[in-house]
Design a protein that fits this description.
alpha/beta, five-stranded parallel sheet
Length: 172
């Protein structure tokens, strides 16, 4: 293995730099003389089950490999044009904010657990150790399913998985 150790941070709805607890913690850790990772990789995944991603695919594709992003009960689109625009602007803003502090943002499209598994496999093939996968906990049935998929992918890769409590719900 190489001496590189990557910490992967999967962003979901925590799309702000200024008050993000995981970004704050990584900044604190890097101020210490020794810390458990050499590289920090923030990743945002446009989840195929939440937003229609066929527009991200190459025009040569006959059909999207992902299911349509419709609700199972009513068949309604999960994400309308205004929400999609807001989400894209938010992702772009966090990308610019991370670049201002010397980082960046990897952006991917697909089923979240599958995308993480592919990332972990790519790091393994490159002989780069992944020190951990961190993300913020969310409420909801589908969000919990996503968390289980991510945890499973991290465990299969023998990588630490840490789920952070979302502090936005705490009231002083």
């Amino acid at each position: 293995m190489s001496s590189s150790r990557v910490l992967i941070y999967l962003l979901r709805r925590d799309l702000r730099v200024a008050d993000n607890p995981i970004l704050h913690e990584t900044a604190r850790i890097t101020q210490q003389s020794q810390y458990p990772f050499t590289h920090f990789l923030p990743v945002y995944i446009f989840a195929a089950q939440q937003i229609e991603v066929s527009g991200f695919l190459s025009p040569d594709s006959e059909r999207s490999p992902f299911p349509e992003a419709r609700s199972p009960a009513g068949g309604f689109w999960r994400c309308g044009p205004h929400r999609a625009k807001f989400l894209a602007e938010s992702v772009w803003d966090v990308k610019k904010g991370l670049e201002k502090v010397g980082s960046g943002l990897a952006i991917r499209v697909g089923m979240v657990g599958q995308v993480l598994k592919e990332l972990l496999d790519a790091f393994k093939q490159a002989n780069t150790e992944v020190a951990g996968v961190w993300m913020t906990e969310e409420e909801g049935v589908e969000e919990k399913r996503e968390e289980r998929d991510i945890k499973r992918a991290a465990e299969e890769a023998k990588t630490e998985f840490k789920l952070w409590v979302d502090e936005k719900y705490y009231v002083d």
